[in-house]
Amino acid sequence: MIKVPFGPQHPALKEPENFTFEIDGDIVVAVKPRIGYNHRGIEKAFEQRTYIQNLYLAERICGICSDAHTTCYTQAVESLLGVEAPPRARYIRVIVAELERIHSHSLWLGIAAHEIGFDTLFFYYWRDREVVMDLLESISGNRVHYAMNTIGGVRRDISPEKVSMIKKGLDFLEERMKRYIEMMKTDQTVLKRTEGVGVLKRRDAIDLCAVGPTLRASGVKNDVRADDPYAAYDEIPFNVVTHDGGDVLSRILVRCEEILESIEITRYALDHMPEGMTRVRVPMAVPPGETVSRVEAPRGELIHYAKSNGTARPERYKVRSPTLGNIPALCKMLIGCHVADIPIILAGIDPCFACMDRMTFIDLRNGDEWVWTMQELRRRYRND
Amino acid sequence: MTEHLLTLALRVLIYPGALFLIFLAFLYEWVDRKFLARVQNRYGPLYTGPSGILQPFADFLKLLSKEDIIPAAADRLLFNLTPIAYSTLPLVALLVIPIDGGEAVLAFDGDLIFVMFLLTLIVVTVFLAGLGSMSRFSIIGGVRAALQMLGYEIPMGLALIGPAVAAGSLSITDIVRWQSTGLRWLILLQPLGFAILVCCMLAELEYVPFDIPEAETEIVAGWRTEFSGRKLALIRLGKDLEVVLASALLASLYLGGAQPLYSLPGSITFLIKTVLVVLLFTFLRGVFARFRIDQMVSGMWRYMVPLAILQVILVEFGVGR
């Protein structure tokens, strides 16, 4: 029995995080995650800024699902303010969110291919991802941080010319994705590396509170878009994709088919977008209250909690990113796997560690708990 | 006598020996990189020389000038010697393969066995290099290389024996000569053996799907993780020479080797055939995912070994000779 540290610096991990594996021969028998290498003090930063400034901060929680975070943030603030985004804005939010899902899933599929040593597939996925990145850029002017959402609506409209352009891009993506699904299902080397690898049983997935595609790949029909519709999802028909395998192959197929589903949702939203304004004006100060907002980010259920005290700044802000929800399930699926399968299983939950790291201080001797103020955080990290 | 020695020295050192082979090694690395890039929808090397043809050489020069770090824990002797051994072994093996139409530089009876021995020795060098680095990734990489050899060594040996049995000689030069009389290319007579040898050479070269000893996402660069500077340059050169060796071996044993064809001299047909083999390797490594080590070894024993034995039995019964 040997202990093998994996991370914080490791080629399979794109962000610093540490896992200690106890290995018997070639089989993992125990996993100990150690999170917190990427703590950014982002919740504290929320409390220091006004609601408008926080829009930009929320955008930057994640570099991939930036739109999911702002959607969640604006929903929370809108519910505190008691306003609702106009119908057209809600459709535009759906369109951007689904395009972002396509881009995020394509990115993950490329990484998964790279983890199993299939670099050609990785390049092909990322080449096709450029199409959806270009679409997002044409809508918002940005490739990554779209800055589309604002409190009370969206900042840009989608013109009819753009609609036809997006549709053309979607047709291309649909055709490519169908080919990839066919390929993933039949390629023997891909099947060898993914089928029956990192199995998470349905019961375990529910018990360990897995979220998103990881949960759906274990056969649980759970999707915030369907269960607790936000934006315009209550008016758009779509299927929640599930697979029963619970292995890496199921996670791949769930994401591939979700891309197809996202393409359908975007098409429907583009066709049924109501006319009208895209935003309503809102006051700077937010009345006292607290709220929870949920969004189905590409990686799973994203939860934002906001507490306001009547000023222009939130009193407390909490972000629960989907990766945190998947860590216990990840530890479960790693047990019993081969050492060579660790990278693909780790990547299988589509981890985004920088979004996830939060911190609190606990004195183990007497159980005291406390958090740092922004000044203390600054002193620690900037030495000023 | 002096004239004979001088010719021999020229043949060993310049053409078709070391210098020419090193030139081929850089050329084939470029062919491989460029073609793999096109398979993967990329451009590949572009800037150094026309279409980036000088890029492998530029990389080699750059690495020569880089800092050479020896880890404190490393076994200095092994760490210093293995890169040299790794780059010279394929060079020596290449000297027994006929390249310029006539006889090989160092042709002798039983040189096929000698090549098999050297191919195994290369893997032993890799194992020692991993072990000598004393790094976690290197050791795992080295052990994986040795384990992998357990899988492919037997079918590779059998696939090399097929042509020898058909030609009735253990000399590569004689096997090439046998094939050139009446265009009896062994790929047509023993296609199974050719396919097996291609698979085993992919494993020997640590190419996808058998790049297990240097699996990037699992163990960084595997057994070569700790090497840098001059040593890494030598290792990369050794790898390129190994590619030349593998393609030369396949071309000589199964594709008729350096035989004059129509108006083309032997050396040109040899180059064409080896480039085709390199393109085959590159294409194959572009279209697979990486196997796990247990899958690789069990797959080799379950499918490749029986097929290789079947091929030898067929040859023994007169099919394909």
Summarize the topology.
The complex is a heterodimer of chains A (384) and B (321).
Chain A: E1 2-6, E2 18-24, E3 27-34, H1 42-48, H2 51-59, H3 66-81, H4 87-115, H5 119-140, E4 149-150, E5 153-154, H6 160-186, H7 188-194, H8 202-207, H9 212-216, H10 224-227, H11 248-271, E6 289-297, E7 300-308, E8 314-320, H12 322-334, H13 342-348, H14 353-356, E9 361-362, E10 369-370, H15 374-382
Antiparallel strand pairs in A: 1-2, 2-3, 4-5, 6-7, 7-8, 9-10
Chain B: H1 2-13, H2 18-39, H3 55-64, H4 76-94, H5 111-133, H6 136-167, H7 172-180, H8 186-189, H9 191-204, H10 216-219, H11 229-254, H12 266-286, H13 293-316
Description:
The complex is a heterodimer of chains A (384) and B (321). In chain A, 49% of the residues lie in helices and 14% in strands. Chain A has 384 residues and is an alpha+beta fold. In chain A, strands 1-2-3 form a three-stranded antiparallel sheet, covered by helices on one side. In chain A, strands 6-7-8 form a three-stranded antiparallel sheet. Chain A has a two-stranded antiparallel sheet with strand order 4-5. The longest helix of chain A is centred in the N-terminal third of the chain and has 29 residues. Chain B has one domain. The longest helix of chain B has 32 residues. The radius of gyration of chain B is 19 Å and the shape is globular. At the A-B interface, α4, α5 and α7 of A face α10 and α13 of B.
Average pLDDT for all residues of chain A: 87
Shape of chain B: globular
Q: Distance between termini of chain A?
A: 46 Å
What portion of the residues of chain A fall into strands of 2 or more residues? Answer: 5-15%
**Biggest interface, which chains?**
A-B, 27 and 24 residues
Total of DSSP H or I helical runs spanning 4+ residues of chain A:
15
Q: Work out the number of β strands of chain B.
A: 0
Give the overall shape of chain A, derived from the CA principal axes. globular
Mean pLDDT of chain B: 87
Q: How much helical structure, as a percent, in the residues of chain B?
A: 55-70%
In N-to-C order, the SSE pattern of chain B is HHHHHHHHHHHHH
Structural class of chain A: alpha+beta
